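Retro notes, structure queue

What went well: the backlog is down to a handful. What didn't: a couple of records were mislabeled last round, so from now on we paste the full input next to the output in the thread. Example, using Putative DNA-binding stress protein, Dps family from Oceanibaculum indicum P24:
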Amino acid sequence: MGTSTEIDIGISKKDRKAIADGLSRLLADTYTLYLKTHNFHWNVTGRMFNTLHLMFEEQYNALALAVDEIAERIRALGFPAPGSYSQYAKLSSVKEETGVPSAEEMIAQLVKDQEAVVRTARELLPLADKAGDEPTVDLLTQRMQTHEKTAWMLRSLLQ
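Corresponding output:
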């Protein structure tokens, strides 16, 4: 056939690997936050039940879409996307919650976790920018904007 399966998108393999590794951390953070938000959706109680139940559902649905986008970007760069709980536990800066905290504690944890995802994305941004990886820069910018806004909205509930 004579076709090449080598990736030639104008970014070196070394840079693609470093970016994919950073995106893997972002994927782990995002997936862990997805799972935690879904858990809180199921288990929230109290005065703000309906508001939080619906808000958490909206957030975990958005996170599910983000997980797919991040994983597909890793694949487009030519590397496998991590996809197991054990990999995510090693890579994620977001800590899982195994108990059932109060509604206010759920909100406080999610604020902290949304901001952790922003920091992970922000850490990767200069590398992607330096490598000329505009699709990843765009993805990271969108993720930071979404997580910063979500953290702000959640934080507003605590005031």
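Agreed that this is the format going forward. Reviewer comment attached to the example: The chain has one domain: 13-157.
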